Amino acid sequence: MRKQAAKKMPLAPDPRFNDKLVTRFVNNVMEQGKKSIAYRIFYDAIDRVSQITNENGYEVWKKALTNVTPAVEVRSRRIGGATFQIPSEVRPDRKISLCMKWLIRYAGERNGKSMAEKLANEIVAASKGEGAAFKKKEDTHRMAEANKAFSHFRI
Questions:
Q1: Could you tell me how far CA 54 lies from the centroid of its own chain?
Q2: What are residue 87's DSSP bridge partners?
Q3: Where are the domains of the chain?
Q4: What is the 3 state secondary structure string of the chain?
Q5: Rounded to whole angstroms, what are the CA distances from 113 to 121, 123, 132?
Q6: Name one Pfam family in it (predicted).
Q7: By percentage, how much of the chain surpasses pLDDT 90?
Q8: Rounded to whole angstroms, how far apart are CA atoms 124 and 21?
């Protein structure tokens, strides 16, 4: 058993926007430790977003993140031999983590040539309140609403 929780490592802000949130997003995009490629994918995606929308790509990305961020989620809990889906509020740190992972996952499942192109399209869709990542948030909220009757079993 641990005596205390693991310490969070401080993140360095990214070189272009000087934002720690971007670094966190890039760390989620990164595969096999290839951070420079992950940065290239992210920056290309942001440039494409600004071309598509004729707005600041960084601002559109931030709007997409807020649109995809969940407020509640369901957690499985076994009670009396039955498994219930219990709605619970999401911790602030986990909210950010979930929205980033959903954006990246559903961007990867899109049709397109490069990951940057797919990510750009998913960001634009999420900023408008469309796309698979936004649908995932809506489904999560709908599931929590449907199981509100079991909220007295809170963990």
A1: 24
A2: 74
A3: 34-73+85-150
A4: CCCCCCCCCCCCCCCCCCCHHHHHHHHHHCCCCCHHHHHHHHHHHHHHHHHHHCCCHHHHHHHHHHHHCCCEEEEEEEECCEEEEEEEECCHHHHHHHHHHHHHHHHHCCCCCCHHHHHHHHHHHHHCCCHHHHHHHHHHHHHHHHCHHHHHHCC
A5: 11, 16, 18
A6: Ribosomal_S7
A7: 64
A8: 18
| Residue carrying structure tokens 């960084």 | 58
Query: What's the CATH code, domain 34-73+85-150?
Result: 1.10.455.10
What are the tens digits of pLDDT across the range 70-100? 999 888 888 888 888 888 889 999 999 999 9
Rounded to the nearest 10 degrees, what angle do helices 35-53 and 57-68 cross at? 100
Q: What is the pLDDT of residues 21-49, one digit of tens each?
A: 999 999 999 999 999 999 999 999 999 99
Contact (Cβ atoms closer than 8 angstroms) between residue 82 and residue 116: no
> What is the rounded CA–CA span in Å between residue 66 and residue 109?
21
Query: How many CA atoms within 13 Å lie on the side-chain side of 105?
Result: 12
Rounded distance between C-alpha atoms, residue 118 and residue 89, angstroms: 30
CA-CA distance, 6 to 2, in Å (whole number)?
Answer: 9
Residue 154: per-residue pLDDT:
65
